[in-house]
Amino acid sequence: MDGPTYKTKNYDAVPYLDISAAYNTDGTVVLNVTNRNRDTAQDGVFQLEDKKFASEFEVYEVNGPDIKAENDFDKTVVQTTQRASVKASGSVLKYSFPAHSFTMLKGKLA
Questions:
Q1: Which CA distances in Å does 96 have to 44, 45, 93?
Q2: Mean pLDDT confidence for 72-91
């Protein structure tokens, strides 16, 4: 997956989106995406080579009001929120990942 990058002290092209995936033999796939851009949502496109997405994907987002937000024993500022499901189109799944967030997409493959 290609996308915008930023320059750090040690590296010239660090992608804003950090992505991992897990696949279970029952056809379930989980996509975990961290958007490191502090101000801008980043669009992601996942494309399968030899399979198709079979269902809508559940969307769970972890985010807070700003990049310094943190939880403590007496307050919960950063929360996990279930968002509206997203529908894939055949072998393509598109999603816009909110600024400075962690998102988990969970669904099935055909």
A1: 6, 9, 10
A2: 92
